Amino acid sequence: MKQLITAVAAILVSTASFAQFQVSASTGYAMSSAGMQLGTTTTTTSTENNCGSYGEGSNVQIRGTYFLNEKFGLDLSVGYLHGADQTINKTSIPTVAEVNAVARARAFGASASMVYNFTENFYGRIGALLKIGGKTEAVISNKSYFTDAQASAQNLPSGSYSETNYVEDYHGHFPLGFVGALGYSFDLDENFALFVEAEYYGISLKRKDSEITEFNTDIVLPDGTVAVAGFYSLDNLPTPTGSATDVYRTTTYVDELSHAEAAAQAQAPDSDHTKKLSQKVPYSSFGLNFGVTYKFSGSKK
């Protein structure tokens, strides 16, 4: 027992003699690495897939690293992703419909990694990534033209249309992913250093629920004059009719939907239309970060 205690004490003393704590702050930009389908672009002649990842965009990170010795360290970080717009629906069919819908991530994440110094300047990180908060925000603008019969029934001139603008926030289950990075650090003095690193995120998010947070529909004349403002609003959503154009303020995403539930949704206006099959959306990315590190002195020998 005494030998074991002596050995453990020796290891702790040896570790403490090399121990060093440092903090860093960085910013950067990441590009999509998943390339999964997010939506479509439709014209009168064709329909094209839009691929990408919600992980694309700018980010900021704050990181704390504790080095056990000159080579190995443990790293904890938190960050925020301000995602770039991703086209989920772009439709342009003159006199029928025009849709411009984009979605973007607004997400907070955290990671726990192991750091290894290959040389005095080059290092690598590998660890686990977790999204801890935020949302995927969809911003939709939909211009739908009335048929001549519909316009006549509402005493509107031919060419009139409804223009709907709304925002829907999507939330997901907490996912677990992978993070890896290779970087180069350049010491400015004993305490400060600059670094640049290439970083990879491998992660997907499973949708849990969504909520419409803004909604407005205007009736517009052919010359652009608003005939009826606020025809529909967040407090006065279109009455469900059992069709694909229904609007529901909240939606829950589930792993299983029975055939009876699916048939009821397609046929009965008063059935539960607030459930949809869940899906995974990509957040994977490859980016470049630039930052500054402060090394606390006093513990390194």
TrEMBL record:
Signal peptide region: 1-19
Source organism: Polaribacter atrinae
Keyword Calcium annotated: no
Ranges for domain Outer membrane protein beta-barrel: 9-211
Protein name: Outer membrane protein beta-barrel domain-containing protein
InterPro entries assigned to the protein according to its UniProt record, in alphabetical order: Beta-barrel_OMP, OMP/PagP_B-barrel
Keyword annotations: Signal
Pfam family, one: OMP_b-brl
